[in-house]
Amino acid sequence: MRTVTVVGASLAGLYAARALRAEGFDGRLVIVGAEHHRPYDRPPLSKTFLTRRPPGALSLADLRLSDREEEDELAAEWHLGTRATALDTAGRSVTLDDGRTTRTLRTDGIVIATGAAPRTLPGPPLAGVHVLRTYDDARALRAALHDGTPRVVVIGGGFIGAEVASSCAALGLPVTVVEAAPLPLVPQLGPDLARICANLHADHGVRLLCGTGVKGLRDDGTGRVRAVELADGRLLDADLVIVGIGVRPATGWLTGSGLRLDDGVVCDAGGVTSVPQVVAAGDVARCAGARTEHWTSATEQPGTAVRNLLAGTTVARHTALPYFWSDQYGTRVQLAGRHGPQDTVRIVEGDPGDRSFLAVYESDGRITAALAVDRPRPFMRLRRRLVADAAAPCGPPVAPAAAPGADS
Amino acid sequence: MIPVCRTEDLPEGGAVRIEIDATTPAIAVFRSEGALYALDDRCSHQDASLSEGWVEDCQVECPLHAALFDLRTGRPSCLPARRPVRTHEVTEADGMIHVRPAAREPAVREDAYA
């Protein structure tokens, strides 16, 4: 391969570029990013970026994922503020649009790392309504949060919603979280632990309204939001609305490319699409039927995908144990592993009442996953054990004494 | 020198976190392969306490993102961390462990994630 183009200049794109060079690819490396910014870290955007005083204390430079020295070493051609608008897999080319001109770039290999975009509510855009994904989103939201004492309604009680609500509470703002499901985060945490995490809102004076959807937003006649109307008829006064109702993988530009798209770019277990010269990684990739939106997946998948791209076939598969964390209300929630809806939950350390505990999910007498609230050290021990045993034919046995490697 | 803990309170593979005052970043003291090491406690990548990390082979793995730091030098040996953490002098005598915080000019620039 003489030219490889990485489409997407965030976490997965940067890790793909690093992996290409680390694997010895010494050809032309092109990185295309829709945003104008060099790769930056997104997790702080819902947390300290919003709350640190004075507002603006945290800058884009503080969030940078790479430095000038590394970028020089990558020897890449950066096309920032540039969207890929089409992929021609037969002609081996990608169409780029920087807002002024459109051009076609010949490329031998493609890494798709375009991530995902927040879902929005139907209806015309209103002032005072925000989503949170990018640095620009976060900067706009931060300015709004620090402008007086806005009444905030967060739509969606998932991780983004919970973290933003927590940041608003830390700023002393009145916050209501609206969740359509009977309880937030049940698919991610299971009902028992989802209930415990939901209690964090009330602990910190944040109102959580569950089991009711949003019918629509009311405007004040000048194009600014003034209230959120719930499906059950209630009206919540709001100066500021944050919509955190999930994301859609950014695959619009791949329509007509011939690649299979189904809630993401359909890939095998090694991130390879139906075209061996095209791989995908991060939020946009549906690998072996599963799409993950975790920071760690975006750092782990590119290495495998790039190895397969350079090999021309799938020689490696993603094997990493899923892991994510969330910081809310001064507590750190961490989850590792894969649990099913039938798994049982057992508290192995601490007490949920104290908001500090370690829990395991179990199925057929085996630990499938672990969740910790403010228990980083024992969590790490258990996570390492799950990783070590992931290669074994079955998961780790429940009895810790019998676990290989438990104390290594 | 600032007292950290008694010798028996820091076993092999263990770590102790100490806070000194409001202006000095917290320090983590580790025992690995029989020797003692002291580093800034906060990971140079994001807000996480290295004292809660995994200690092995003179390295500590950050509990949040698995960045590895060399306990001897404070340098990261793998991503996502790219900047070193400061090291501090640590001593053990008469059953007590002490640490001397390094001078203030940081090897690490002002961290972004406090």
In short:
The complex is a heterodimer of chains A (408) and B (114). With 408 residues, chain A is of the alpha/beta class.
Explain this structure.
The complex is a heterodimer of chains A (408) and B (114). Chain A is α/β, with parallel strands linked by helices and 408 residues long. Chain A folds into 3 domains: 3-117 and 247-311, FAD/NAD(P)-binding domain, CATH 3.50.50; 120-243, 3-Layer(bba) Sandwich (FAD/NAD(P)-binding domain); 330-402, Enolase-like, domain 1 (2-Layer Sandwich). Chain A is 24% helix and 30% strand. Chain A has helices at residues 11-22, 48-51, 60-63, 68-74, 135-145, 159-170, 186-189, 191-203, 295-311, 376-390; strands at residues 3-7, 28-33, 76-80, 83-88, 93-97, 102-106, 109-112, 116-118, 129-130, 152-155, 175-179, 207-210, 214-219, 225-230, 235-237, 240-243, 247-249, 265-267, 278-280, 285-287, 290-291, 323-328, 331-337, 344-351, 356-363, 366-373. In chain A, β24 and β25 form a beta hairpin. The two termini of chain A are 43 Å apart. Residues 399-408 of chain A have low confidence and may be disordered. Chain B is mostly beta strands. In chain B, 0% of the residues lie in helices and 37% in strands. Chain B is globular and about 40 Å long. Chain B has a 6-stranded antiparallel beta sheet, with no helix packed on it. A 3-stranded antiparallel beta sheet of chain B has the order 5-6-7, with no helix packed on it. Chain B has one domain (2-100): Rieske [2Fe-2S] iron-sulphur domain (Rieske Iron-sulfur Protein, 3-layer Sandwich), CATH 2.102.10.10. Classes of the chains: A alpha/beta (408), B mainly beta (114).
